[in-house]
Amino acid sequence: MAKKSAQKSEKKNQVRRAMNRAAKSKVRTAIKKFEDAVRSGDKKNAEVLMAESFKLLDSSVNKGVMHRNTVDRKKSRMAHAFNKLA
User: Fold this and answer.
1) Residue 57's domain spans which residues?
2) Would the keyword Transferase be found if you checked this record's keyword annotation (predicted)?
C-alpha cells in the first residue's frame, strides 16, 4: 500500500487537475464564442467577447494553468482577427 503522503499527493493532484481542466474549458468556450462573433461579422459583440476572453486568459496565467507565452500568442491572434473585421 502507498505511503500516506503519496496518497495525499495523489488526492491533491486530482483536485488540481479538475480545477485546471475547468479553467481551460472556460477559456476555450470564450474563445469559440469570440470566433463565432468574428465569423458572423458582429464587431460590437466580438469586442465584448474578446475582453472577456482576455480576462480569462490572464487569470489562467496567474493561476498557473497556462504559460504566459501561450496566452500572449492566443491574445495576439484574437486581436489580429478582430482588427481584420474593420
Assistant:
1) 15-85
2) no
